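Continuing the batch. This is chain 6 of the set; chains 1 through 5 are on the previous pages. Same settings as before, nothing changed between runs. Recording input and output for traceability.
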Amino acid sequence: MPENDPNRTTVTYADAGVDLERAARAKQRIRYLAHKTFTKNVLSEIGSFGGMFALDKQKYKDPVLVASVDGVGTKLKVAFEMNLHHTIGGDLVNHCVNDIAVQGAAPLFFMDYFATGKLDPDIAERVVAGIADACKHNGCALIGGETAEMPGFYEHGDYDLAGFIVGVVDRERVITGKNVQVGDVLVGLASNGLHTNGYALARKLLFETAHYSPETYVNELKNKVGNELMRVHKSYWPLLKKLLDGETISALAHITGGGMTQNLPRALPKGTAAVIEMGTWPEQPIFQHLQQLGGIPQDEMMRAFNMGIGMIMVVPPKKFKKVQTVLERAGEKGYTIGRIVKGERKVLYS
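Output for chain 6:
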């Protein structure tokens, strides 16, 4: 049909489900949020094809960049049901910050990927506001990202979220676990609930087995189910920075998917193993309740959930008192949950 034919039907990108004007308005609001996290090291503007960040040459003698990428899993499903989107951004940032912190890296900058079927500017802004707030708290800059509108790919109201972080540490201060020795002490830092792992199992037990809704108040939890599940993944960086500056830690393990069973061995050198002494830290009600609902064996619980410990520090005995002092001054509680023994990179429970 000729282009000047009056009967010709004109189809636009908006007709296909992608509203470029709406996306532009959303990105303008995101630009404002990101600007609040900028440091003097950020050299690019939001909207550039690539984000630029300059390293402080005076601060680092032999800088090593440490990068990680992650998401928040099916915790998103709970966020959708509760229409609660700000905290999910904090979950994403804090998870990524903790992942690079275990190698001693200070967070430098963060980038996010937000994909949805039909872009809702208000929801996108709430998610990015949470990301920006968490970046500010952790001392890193939100320098860019991707907002993708993909009609027909996601269900109405659904979105996916992922984050990419880059940090830096001087080569001589990289934590590899090579200094871990038999006799070192395991100090656990409390989690804030499930964090961002084990949600597929938790949702099945709470919503399908127990037939709860997010608004159900459960006496054993002393909380509504949705509020309990949406507790923000805790960032340990502000505390770990003080401990790392004092060179008190031999290794670190972020207890995420796989629990202690699979994550702690990643921090151990050959010839060593970890003994975890059960009952040496307070067990949070959410884990007790989930285990009761599903009749879940203890070894499965230790693989599926963090069980109340979100970060484990391996500390030489001679540095233990110093670590305790830092924790007390920071108002944080550390639990002595085990020790390093001879073995082949596995976790033993006693």
